[in-house]
Structures are given as C-alpha cells and as structure tokens.
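Quick sanity check, AraC-like DNA-binding protein:
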Amino acid sequence: MNKNDINNYLHQLTEREKLYKNNQVSESMDDYSDFEVYTNASGDSVFKYTFEKHLQKAIDSNRHISTHLHTSPLLVFKHNRYAYTPLHSHDFIEINYVYSGQAHITIDDTTLILEKGDLCILDTDVVHRISNTSDSDILVNILMKKEYFSSNMLNRLASNNIISEFAVRSISETHSHDQYIVFTTDDSEILQDAISGLLVYYLDPVSYSLDAINAYMIIIFSELLKSYTQKKSLECRSTNQQYIGDVLQYIEKNYATCSLTDVATHFNFNASYLSRYLKKQTGTTFMKMIQDIRLNHACALLKNSTYSIEEICQQIGYRNLTFFYKKFTETFHCTPKKYRNSYRKIVEE
C-alpha cells in the first residue's frame, strides 16, 4: 500500500457507507449502539465512548491487522460519511482531520465548521456531536490514549527547543482550559502527506510500523506547532503587539552571540522590560534560557559530530572552557567527554 492507495481508500465507499447513503442502517447497526448512555443536565442522551470498546470494534472489523492493533496506543480510521454521530464523550484524546470537504462539530452551543486541512483535538469527557457528512466530506479520526498524547508526543516535541517548548505549554494550557483546540493549517501538504503516511503503516502493518507511526505523529504535531505559532504571531501583529514566539525564535537563532541588550534593541524594547517580559511569558530568565540553549546544542554536537570539546565550546558561544565544563557538569552530572563516550557506547550496542 502507498499514499496513492490511501487517497483511493478514503474516497471509496465502504459497505457501511453504502448502507448509510441508502438509509438502510438500523439503530442496532450504528457504531454507538452498544456504548453506555447517560442523561445530561439538559435532558439529552450522551453516549460514553471508550478506547477499549473502539479497539475491540477495530479488531473485529480488521482481522488482517488485529495483532498490530493490540499493541497500538492509537486507533486510526475514516469517519463514516452520511452518518450522524450523536452527543457523546470519550475517555481518550480524539483528533479530527478534514482530509477533504467540511466537518461540523458541535460542542456545547458552539458549532465548529472545519474546512479541508483543518484539525481539531478534543480532550477527554468533552460532550460533542458530528453532523452528517456528504460525498466529499472525508474526516480522518485518530484516537489516542491520554498518556500517549501527553507523555509521548508533547514531551518529545517540547525537548526540541525553547520555541516548541513554549508552544507546547501554551497548547496544553489552551487544551486544558477549553478542552479542545482547532488548528488551521492552510491545507498543509506536509500535514496531509503525514496523515497519509500514518495510514499506510497503520492499515498495511510491518514489523517496524509502530516506529513509523510514532515518527509520523511527530511530524503531524510539528506541523500543528508551526501553525499555532504562525497564527499567534499574526494575531499579535494585527494589534501592534510583539509575539513572544518571534522573540524566542530570534534568541534561538542568535543564541551564541546575542545579549539581552541585542535582543531588546532588535525588537525596540527596553532591556529591563524585555527581561521581565521573558520571565513572565516563559518562567525563566534570559541568562538561563541562553545557557539551556547552548548546552542543548552542545549535547547535539557531542552526539552527532567529531568536533573537539574545545571547538564545541566556541561554537555554542562560550569563551571559557572551564566555565563550559562547570555548567555542563552541573546540568548533566557528567563531563562533556563522558557524555559523548556514553552516547557512543549506547549506539554501538
């Protein structure tokens, strides 16, 4: 199976979709019929979706990949077209990606209209429903156990640099407060390519499918981080404000040489104001931020280059080798040489 096959797979009518289209599905055949149901404060019936029951349904209907599914921390499938999904909540994180057409998702009294390329992440216990979809409305659903989303995805992304760390924290806070977040990706080709790649390894599993799926999920969330930071930057510029992400990006790019005064001058800030602004927005000081960036880059160079430790010290902006050794050892509890040797030992094993 390749990515062209995925496009055909998503557009092709399934047997269930044919029944839905011709109004031949009875209530007992609906996907939600065997879930528990409760009545909310408004008197509406709400179905309680669970990851385990969705997993069992997936195994029953996909016997050729059932072994793979048992070990997967996520489920991926195409949302049935022509089918109304009633009010429900779930014990997992849900991603809805609009592959083509539109999708209408109602949460409380708000109806979100997602266009092609848009993606919505829904938290656990969010009561929502999805309206009927038509021929061209193709929605890809990704169901994730909460621990996979929080520990696997967000932590790995946040470790990349200060920009992604700040964006991940902001997204997490927004997600926790609103219980959902919508990403407008301008129909990103990279995102659609990653979704297709994810489906390839999910639907046609091989021994290394889980590694490939994790890699594609990293790409997907990286695209969402980019979309989020670009959106916030544009929003701030429209009100003549400076987005913190732009400041962090400048620091990340010029970490080896820039000072607090340099950054303040570049953004027309007072240095004292910038210091307070960074502390408020990121929870850390400028000097600590610079130190963390330099040491993280040092780790990357120690692992992936043959530069001497003296050369690495100079590249990351330290002029005093003794000071570099001191800061590195304080942070990682070993010398740069031991760090490099231990990494090489792991790779060789």
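Posting the structure with no commentary besides this: The two ends are 33 Å apart (CA to CA).
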